[in-house]
Amino acid sequence: MRDSAGVSFPPPFIYAIAFLLGLFLAHFMPLGGVAPLWIRMLGAMLVVTGIVLAATAFRIMLGAGNKIAPNFPVSVIVTRGPYRFTRNLSATSTPAR
Predict the structure, then answer these.
(1) Which has the closest alpha carbon to 10: 69, 60, 95?
(2) Angstrom distances, CA of residue 78 to CA of 29, 40, 70, 93, 94
(3) Is 77 helix (H, G, I), strand (E, B) or coil?
(4) Where are the domains of the chain?
(5) Three-state SS for 49?
(6) What is the pLDDT of residue 44?
(7) 3-class DSSP state of 33
C-alpha cells in the first residue's frame, strides 16, 4: 500500500501551464479592448482570495508537521481552519490565483 498521494506531476504546474498558455495566446492573438472595471475588480478579488487561502493552507499544514509536496506521506490529518470545508485546500485555492 502506498503512503502518499502518488502524484507524479504537481497540480499547481497544470494551472501554471494553462496560465502561461493564456498569456501566450493573449500576446499573439489579442481580442482587443479592456475588460470592464467590475470584471477586473472581480478578478483581483479572486486572486487575493486564492493567495490568502494558499498561504493559510501552507501555514496550517506546516504547523501540523506535514510536508506541502503531495508526493510525501502526511503525518497528521488536518481538520481545523479552512480544512473543515475542503480536503485539499492547496489545490482548491490554485485556480483562484
Answers:
(1) 69
(2) 44, 34, 14, 16, 19
(3) coil
(4) 35-96
(5) helix
(6) 92
(7) coil
